[in-house]
Amino acid sequence: MKVNLIEVFLGLIVVFVSIGFLVLLYIKVDFFSLKDERFSLTARFDNINGILTGSSVKMSGVDIGSVKKIDIDLTTFEAVITMDFKNKYNFPDDSEASIQTDGLLGGSYVSIIPGGSDVFLSDKQEITFTQGSTSLINLMLKFAGDK
User: Fold this and answer.
1) 56 vs 19, 63, 74, 135, 139, CA distance in Å?
2) Residue 147's pLDDT is what?
3) pLDDT number for residue 143
4) Which end of the chain, N or C, is surrounded by fewer C-beta atoms within 10 Å?
């Protein structure tokens, strides 16, 4: 049986690349956080430009959750976003959710601004104070004297 060195070399490359992908997956995915208890909150917006399922939810610039589901309320025609958080976060019931952008070319995310109430939101409740995304083109047209 003759051993072809090129086939052995290519086989070793495939094995090392596969191990590299598994190590990268282990580094990037926090497997322990998958077991954490989670809760969800909803918020209604008039405009959610740039928000997709999986978009970040941030507070003070720190990632604290993600957008789990996007739907539309057919009675009010508002976008309804369901956000997923770890149980270690508590939000007062007068907190505000707003759509923000990461710079001019960056993506959009949901920003949570905590309120000052002593009553906290629990699982499946709604953040009532919201602010939708602002279109930069509409703002520029307003400042340019759109007639």
Assistant:
1) 29, 6, 25, 19, 24
2) 54
3) 78
4) N
Domain parsing of the chain, residue ranges: 37-141
Tell me the pLDDT band of 114, cut-offs 50, 70 and 90: very high
Query: Quick one: pLDDT at residue 135?
Result: 72
Q: Please give, one letter per residue, the 3-state secondary structure of the chain.
A: CCCCHHHHHHHHHHHHHHHHHHHHHHHHCCHHHHHCCEEEEEEEECCCCCCCCCCEEEECCEEEEEEEEEEEECCCCEEEEEEEEECCCCCECCCEEEEEECCCCCCEEEEEECCCCCCECCCCEEECEEECCCCHHHHHHHHCCCC
